[in-house]
């Protein structure tokens, strides 16, 4: 059953990664590459507080999602994600490592482990190892290119049945004199006794691009 969208008053400034407290008002179209990084940044900026998401409802899970904007931590990132998303990530990485090893490559081993490893090592590694590394790479790219997240507005939420909540969020970002905003949908699902976040479309896009590049 679908309920009507519910307006949310949350307009909390997102301070942290290069946040400019004064903000920027200059408008201008953002090239696709910059819009992609904005999306990736929004899609990967996740962390949970010392009390994990299992103990709270969907709104708190979303709040924890954006906490990375002020803390830049990824250590507990996997605690926020739903098991289906993490299983898909682990399967993709196992296939990617196997594909590279069969071709005699080792770049993934150095990238994620810092040394030579075997397929047994890859299969034994938790999915969080790969997710955290992706997050660090995106955050580093955003810092180098001086992307700023000024604030977020939770426009509303949509309940789908009893186990799924979709949040509509507008993010305001800028790079130098150019400002931009983007609307993204984040989905939180019930898992066990708590709530978890599904991979947003931006993360799924990163994984798809990563997979396509490896299979070339």
Tell me what the structure shows.
With 216 residues, the protein is of the alpha+beta class. The protein has one domain. Helix content is 44%, strand content 21%. It is built from nine helices and five strands; from the N terminus they run E-H-H-H-H-H-H-H-H-E-E-E-E-H. It has helices at 32-44, 58-66, 68-71, 77-80, 83-102, 107-112, 119-124, 127-144, 201-214, and strands spanning 6-7, 147-160, 164-175, 178-191, 194-197. The longest helix has 20 residues, at 83-102. The radius of gyration is 18 Å and the shape is globular.
Topology (elements, then pairings):
Layout: E1 6-7, H1 32-44, H2 58-66, H3 68-71, H4 77-80, H5 83-102, H6 107-112, H7 119-124, H8 127-144, E2 147-160, E3 164-175, E4 178-191, E5 194-197, H9 201-214
Antiparallel strand pairs: 1-2, 2-3, 3-4, 4-5
Helix pairs in contact: 1-8, 1-9, 5-8
Can you give me a brief rundown of this structure?
With 216 residues, the chain is an alpha+beta fold.
Radius of gyration: 18 Å
Total count of domains = 1
What's the tally of helices? Answer: 9
Per DSSP E runs of 2 or more residues, the count of β-strands stands at 5
Oligomeric state: single chain
Overall structural class, as computed from helix and strand content, comes to alpha+beta
* Order of secondary-structure elements: EHHHHHHHHEEEEH
Q: How would the global form be characterised?
A: globular
Q: Biggest sheet, open or closed, and with what strands and sense? A: 5 strands, antiparallel
The spatial strand order of the largest sheet comes to 1-2-3-4-5
- Strand percentage lies at 15-25%
